[in-house]
Structures are given as C-alpha cells and as structure tokens.
Design goal:
single chain; alpha/beta; about 25% strand; binds adenosine-5'-triphosphate
C-alpha cells in the first residue's frame, strides 16, 4: 500500500542561539504506525517532537503533519492532534472530572468524559483534586486528555514515566487499541521495553541527528547474540578452558571472557552454528556446559552499542557537516 505519510519531515533543524539541537532530521510516519524516538538525555527528542507538534517553528527544512505545516497552519490540523507533553499545566484546585470537562469544552468532538477516565483507570478518582493525585495518576490524566478528541495523530512524550508496571501495561493496551483503530503515534521514551512492545519502527537520535531507523527486529539482528556457561568435567568440577582450548567459533566477536565465578561469556554473530560446535566439542570431551544461557541481543544492548559507536562517529560527522 502506498499512501502519503501522515508525518513527513525533511532536513528539520532547530537552534537555541548558536547551539543546534536538531541537525537535519528526516522522518516519515505512515497512517496507523507507531514510531518510537529513542535517544539519551539531551539527544534532541523533545526539541524535535515540538517541531512536529507545531509548538515551535523549524529553523530549517520542512515539517508536514496531515499535509500541513504544523506551526504556521496549526489551526487547520490542531483538532486532529492529541499531545501528551512531559508535564501538563493543570490547575491543582480542579478535580479530575472538572479538569476533563474543561478540556472537553475546548474540543470539537470530545469522547464522553466518563469513558475516557475509565479507559485510563481514573474513574474512581473523578472527584479527587488534581493536586492530590500521585505522579502516576497525573500521567494517566495527561493521557486521558491527549486521547479525548480521538486524535488522528497522537504525540506521546515519555507517557509512562512514573507509572507502576501494571499501569504501564494498561497504557500500552490503550495505545495498542488506538493503533488498531488507525491512529498514528509518535512516541518518545526512555523505556526500551516500551519501544519493543509498541513500536513498528524505531528512530534513534544522537546529538540532534537520526543515527538509525528500522524495525526492532532489524536493529537487534545487527547486534551479536550472547552465550554464557560454566564448563564442568565428568566429576562435576568447574574447569576453565583457555581461549586456545575452545573450538574455533566462526561468529565470535572479541575474545571470550571468564568472570570471577568461572562463567564463560562470549558474543557471536552466528548463534546457532557456534552453539552447535560448542555442544559437540563438550560432548567429545565429556564436558558439561552448565547453566547454559544463549540469547539474542536485546534492544537495550543494541541501543547501548549504537550509542557508543555513534558518539565516536559524531565527531567525524561534525567536521564533514
Ligand atoms: N530552551 C533551550 N535553550 C537552550 N538549549 C536548549 C533548550 N532546550 C533544550 N536545549 C538543549 O538542546 C539539547 C536537546 O534537548 P532536548 O530536551 O530536546 O533533549 P531530549 O532528547 O528530549 O532529552 P531528555 O531525554 O532529557 O528529555 C540539549 O543539549 C538541551 O540542553
């Protein structure tokens, strides 16, 4: 299916004085897709997302949401956007339901307030003053307001920060329901598990540039898998093979390490082949690979590896820019 992207950004730039926080970002988000923007603190996520939300003008490049410039043509699209900022400025004196009703009054087609509060698990807190809510409850009220207008495009800036694991999962279910109904979502998060759970695609920002985009599986596949075990002989005693004792393993990157407990750690780009070779090697010598743990890299490992390598690359791209 080819359709125009709902969010389309080309060469976006944003400056604060002489400092450039967003340095030529390209991004497309298609209808019904969730793209998660990841990056370490100060990478430029909020600076970039504010351009797409139309809360600030770009200093260069082109930003389009639903075919419009979200800053200069904001009034034409604002009714189709739902924005959940990192901190919303509610009056603490209003109750939850009063806040929701006030917000509903600003929207063209609000969903029923009771439904929206129930969806985020705040129905039983409707008459509590906002000032008395916990941090996690305030976050859920933010989400209720952002989704009240049934937006075509939803911006979620760290939506589950401060939520307990159960509330976090409830938020994920709500977002998944909106995605299934065709909502397009741009999410920023520091929780890689959240990105793994929700994102169709991930974009990783580093010092104002996107250094990687792709599906979680593709990003993770580029990172070596981990294998760990303790080698024991026929008597059950742990033995520590040197690298020279081990069979030749084709996918192994860097030298296998033995930690203080005698556990051997290696990383390989050919998990199945190298595991098979290791098991054959152990079998032929009547050795056991105890507590064997072999697993693909997590998004977290891929993210940390990318962050290391891109900070080195960044110095080079600075000169080239
Ligand atoms: N109003 C501002 N004036 C000057 N510099 C700013 C301003 N806002 C942000 N910056 C700088 O721009 C860079 C990007 O900040 P931004 O808040 O966009 O990062 P972020 O990826 O959202 O970080 P976090 O994960 O901590 O929210 C940082 O170096 C920050 O110090």
């Amino acid at each position: 299916m080819t359709s125009n992207p709902i969010i389309s950004v080309r060469g976006a730039r944003r400056r604060y004085g002489t400092f450039e926080a967003v340095r030529g970002v390209d991004l497309d988000v298609r209808r019904g897709e969730l793209v998660a923007l990841l990056g370490t603190n100060g990478a430029g996520k909020t600076s970039f997302v504010e351009l797409v939300e139309g809360l600030a003008p770009a200093d260069g490049g082109e930003v389009r949401v639903l075919g419009r410039d979200p800053y200069h043509q904001r009034r034409e699209i604002v009714g189709s956007l739902g924005i959940m900022l990192q901190s919303a400025g509610f009056s603490g004196d209003l109750t939850v339901v009063e806040t929701a009703r006030t917000w509903a009054g600003t929207l063209t087609r609000p969903r029923p307030v009771d439904d929206v509060l129930a969806a985020v698990g705040l129905a039983h807190r409707a008459d509590v003053r906002v000032a008395s809510l916990s941090g996690g409850e305030k976050r859920r009220l933010d989400l209720a307001l952002a989704t009240m207008g049934d937006p075509e495009v939803l911006f979620l800036d760290e939506p589950t920060t401060g939520l307990d694991p159960e509330s976090r999962r409830a938020t994920w279910r709500l977002v998944q329901g909106m995605l299934a109904a065709g909502t397009t979502v741009l999410l920023t998060t520091h929780y890689l598990e959240e990105a793994e759970e929700l994102a169709d695609r991930i974009a990783i920002l580093q010092a104002g540039r996107i250094v990687r985009t792709g599906a979680v599986a593709d990003i993770v596949a580029a990172e070596p898998a981990r294998v760990e075990f303790v080698v024991r002989n026929a008597d059950g005693r742990a033995v520590t093979p040197s690298a020279a004792d081990l069979p030749s393993l084709e996918g192994v990157v860097d030298v296998p390490e033995v930690d203080r407990t005698g556990r051997l750690h290696l990383r390989t780009t050919r998990l199945q082949d190298d595991l098979f070779t290791l098991l054959q090697w152990a079998d032929a010598r009547q050795l056991r690979l105890d507590d064997l743990d072999a697993r693909s890299a997590s998004l977290e490992q891929a993210f940390l590896a990318m962050d290391d390598s891109s900070s080195t690359r960044d110095d080079a791209s600075e000169v080239a820019a």
